[in-house]
Write a structure and sequence with these properties.
Layout: E1 26-27, H1 39-46, H2 62-71, E2 79-82, H3 84-96, E3 103-104, H4 112-119, E4 124-125, E5 147-150, H5 162-170, E6 177-180, E7 202-207, E8 220-224, H6 226-236, H7 246-257, H8 259-282, E9 294-297, H9 304-313, E10 316-317, E11 319-320, E12 330-333, H10 337-351
Parallel strand pairs: 1-10, 3-4, 5-6, 6-7
Antiparallel strand pairs: 2-8, 7-8, 9-12, 11-12
The structure holds pyridoxal-5'-phosphate (PLP).
């Protein structure tokens, strides 16, 4: 070890899903949207004046903040935007989880949470989901340094009822509670956004990546009380004032403008999810009721890991987590109907079911 290495911060990084360079692949492993972004996004990109790239972008991201405030009927002082919700959540960890008490998130959940906690030296505890993979709300009724959980949860796709979300928020008004709604647009809802008016300790985090088909643009946002947003902005402006590029501001705004396209693609994905659920069931797979754009499935007679490997050989990528309790499950992103048919043909072939 070199002398200078003694004081290097060592971390175990998050492992993102594979992004293979395989032109023939069917990619159902990272919950991307199979449809393109709204047509207005293409137009906004085509008409982007590149001369404007000479200048710094608006540090307040005003245009996009305004569009989101209008869309979700909240004040502009209630919206914070960042470079994907990963950036927003990381910023929230730094801003709000400083009590020294352990923060709480489920044992089976978004695997980035423990990575940020470690990075920022935040102690954490991970209450276990129950046998049906449900979040046990009572586990969150105790002294803690803050709470975060996804709803619907990842990778289970399970939705928590609004009254349970509210109970967690209501019983934890001494700390900040973050609900990560990366997949809420695919669920019956309702979103915890409805609760923001009543609880100034609640932050709802959403993203353009999944439901708006813009993973590649990196846009996420948090909505909460003006006080929470002010604290977040103070940390952001102490770190990097220009997180949102000009293209992100323009293209994101264009996406929000097209509500009809948004509803239409989400409708298609939900319909495919319904059909996919039936097809999987017919083959003998079992899965928790899906509320996101993926199904978390296991088979009583076939090993998930083997299916995962066999599918990969056929250029079909799904997600497999080699993690206790869920190591016999596949997380299958909902693709187009044609992609799902190809997956089912391969699964029938591999399983003989
Ligand atoms: C995808 C995802 C995110 C991050 O999305 P961004 O692309 O960074 O906006 C956050 N939370 C959960 C649960 C996710 O699945």
């Amino acid at each position: 070890m070199k002398k200078w290495e003694e004081h290097v911060r060592r971390v175990t990084p998050y492992t993102p899903g594979e992004q293979p360079c395989d032109p023939d692949m069917i990619k159902l492993n990272t919950n991307e949207n199979p449809y393109p972004p709204a047509p207005g996004v293409r137009k906004a990109l085509a008409s982007l004046d590149t001369d404007r790239l000479r200048l710094y972008p608006d540090p307040s991201a005003g245009k996009l903040v305004k569009a989101l405030a209008c869309r979700y009927k909240v004040g502009e002082d209630q919206v914070f935007v960042g470079v994907g919700s990963d950036d927003v959540i990381a910023m929230c960890f730094q801003t709000f989880f400083n009590s020294g008490k352990p923060i709480l998130f489920p044992d089976i959940s978004y695997s980035f949470y423990p990575v940020w906690a470690e990075l920022f030296d935040i102690p954490y505890e991970t209450p276990a989901l129950d046998g049906d993979f449900r979040i046990v709300k009572e586990d969150y009724f105790r002294d803690n340094g803050g709470i975060i959980f996804p709803n619907p949860n990842a990778p289970t796709s399970l939705l928590m009822a609004q009254k349970d979300v509210e109970e967690i928020v209501a019983r934890n008004q001494g700390v900040v509670v973050m609900v990560d709604e990366a997949y809420m647009d695919f669920a019956k809802g309702p979103s915890a956004l409805e609760l923001v008016k009543r609880y100034d300790n609640l932050l709802v985090i959403q993203t353009f990546s999944k439901s708006r088909a813009m993973c590649g643009m990196r846009i996420g946002y948090a909505i909460g009380s003006p006080r929470l947003i002010r604290y977040l902005n103070d940390v952001k402006f102490s770190f990097n004032s220009y997180t949102m590029s000009l293209p992100a501001l323009e293209l994101g705004t264009a996406s929000v403008a097209d509500e009809e396209y948004f509803r239409e693609t989400i409708g298609k994905i939900k319909a495919t999810r319904e059909r996919a659920g039936k097809a999987l069931k017919e083959m003998g797979f079992v899965y928790p009721e899906p509320s996101a754009n993926f199904i978390f499935a296991t088979h009583p007679r076939h090993k998930a890991k083997e299916l995962f490997e066999a599918l990969k050989k056929r250029h079909i990528y799904v997600r497999y987590f080699n993690q206790k309790r869920i190591d016999n499950y596949l997380r299958i992103t909902i693709g187009t109907d044609a992609e799902m048919e190809a997956l089912f043909a391969a699964l029938r072939d591999e399983t003989g079911e």
